[in-house]
Amino acid sequence: MAEEAGLKLEQIRAAESRLLLQTYERNPVLFVSGQGVHxxxxxxxxxxxxxxGIGVNALGYxxxxxxxxxxxxSRALIHTSNLFYHEGQAELALLLTERTxxxxxxxxxxxxxxxEGALKLARAHAGLLRSEGxxxxxxxxxxxxxxxGRTFGSVATTHKAKYREPFAPVMPGVEFVRFNDVADLRAKxxxxxxxxxxESIQGEGGIRPLSQEFFGEARALASSTGALLIVDxxxxxxxxxxxxxxxxxxxxxxxxxxxxxxxxxxxxxxAFVCTEEAARAIHAGMHGTTFGGGPLxxxxxxxxxxxIEKEGLLAHATEVGGYFQDRLRELAARHEAIVDIRGxxxxxxxxxxxxxxxxxxxAEMLKRRIVINCTSDTVLRFLPPYIVKREHxxxxxxxxxxxxxxxxxxxxxxxxxxxxxGGPIRG
Length: 427
Ligand SMILES: Cc1ncc(COP(=O)(O)O)c(C=O)c1O
Known about the structure:
This protein is of the alpha/beta class. 40% of the residues lie in helices and 17% in strands. Strands 4-12-11-10-7-5-6 form a 7-stranded mixed sheet, with helices on both faces.
């Protein structure tokens, strides 16, 4: 079908509309390559990517460390299955246990699969505790606005009804707690609960950080009965927030955490990492995967972690992320349509006052060759590669300023103001 350099955008759109399950509303762009923080379309036009494939391409595009790891490992060994040893899993598991503060790793392929494994671990752990005489049930407490993936357990613990209801009945035994509502958490927690499920900073739900009080209470309640505190770090983890994991901003340790997205820099790889206590519940044959933790993905993940460290990208994410939020606050002081700025490191959101404006801003940014997205209807979400620089942030801010000036009403008093970094947010 493809001729010469390949099908062009319009041909591909027509072919996909006949041949693919119609699950995605794609933007009308055909990307063919990338370099650094830029993607390149079929016509050679460069786009500034502030979304990094939804939080995946932490080192951007064409990073020599990733290219070298892929080249070397693909020549040596791509797949073995988990029936045999290879060199990568133990080395990567050591890097993950050292950075999470937890003890043991299970490798999967994707975020949802890592999360499914964590849910199964919680049920198995509660079963083990019951066999030891403890009174503990099988229920999960998840949070409103949560997102944990699309497979049956993950979707059951994902709050948005439109993701769950077409597939009902999903996994039973899940109750949703109001976000950051400590009283609701206390009211719904009991010894029926086998695990409390949170994202340290909700991603798809709109870049919403847990409050210190709520997170602390979740930790204390889980510890009081032997239930597990499971923290989904699939979007916030692996350095995006300026620390390896979002929960490290709160000074507490979960029993289980899940990682995926940027773990292997664009090669699919997920994992859950857990305490020795939780790991007691799993023995040979209870859980597994054909592809998870394969030699290629592990080699690349080791290179990604090594590069984040060598290039000082945690500190860089904190610094550039702080600059990004400051610049967005300046904009918010001038544009009433921006009602909140939040986030940590390079996980940043600007909440707008309408869903229509959200859609329009994303489309207008794309016209200006800048990739972002809008989540939770009204929240502009920025998940740039960790290598993004201040000058790229400046480019995005200028474009946002133009778009908001053109398309959103600007109050006269605000327009006349002088604007300072870190200024007040209007809402
Ligand atoms: C917090 C969180 N958990 C889980 C997932 C699911 O990951 P995947 O799409 O790799 O299955 C996502 C994906 O966006 C996520 O953001």
